[in-house]
Amino acid sequence: MTEREKSLAGELYSPADPELRKLHLRVKKLFGKYNKIDPSNEKKQDNLIKKILGKTGENVRVQSPFYCDYGINIAVGENFFANYGCVILDVNRVTIGKNCMLAPNVKIFSATHPVRAEERYNGVELGLPVTIGDNCWIGGGSIINPGVTLGNNVVVGSGSVVTKSFGDNVVIAGNPARIIREL
Description:
Elements: H1 3-8, H2 18-34, H3 42-52, E1 55-56, E2 60-62, E3 66-68, E4 74-76, E5 80-82, E6 86-89, E7 94-96, E8 101-102, E9 107-109, E10 111-112, H4 117-120, E11 126-127, E12 130-132, E13 137-138, E14 143-144, E15 149-150, E16 155-156, E17 161-162, E18 170-174, E19 177-182
Parallel strand pairs: 1-4, 2-5, 3-6, 4-7, 5-8, 6-9, 7-12, 8-13, 9-14, 12-15, 13-16, 14-17, 16-18
Antiparallel strand pairs: 10-11, 18-19
């Protein structure tokens, strides 16, 4: 397996791999350009975000600044909106459904590190997929951790840290996030 294949399979991989470094440099250049585009030029932003992200639906808006690891592992559905300061670490797949909104400073992490110190210091990493269903709203400053799946119609309260998966039709909040209301 290549290091990229290991990353997508949730196995230990080396981020220093030449293929991964090339992909990371590619997207750094793209989001560097993206973050400098005059915000009134939405058409130019829309065209470039579609080059950054692996798969997009129609009507995708991402406010700058925006940052990611590779971009190609991110898929967003129709009517997606990410507000200022969004960071998506996509060393594994990050899939976001249709009609989803991310408030300012939302962080989505598929990247993680081994718990054992000797593995961390050898420079290997892990990636676990993140899946967010349709019609979700992630409140400002929230963090979605590696391996989390959120069902459809989930609302995440501002400042939450989501460390586990939740099903459909719930409002979650807190650190760690817990269900505070069913919809």
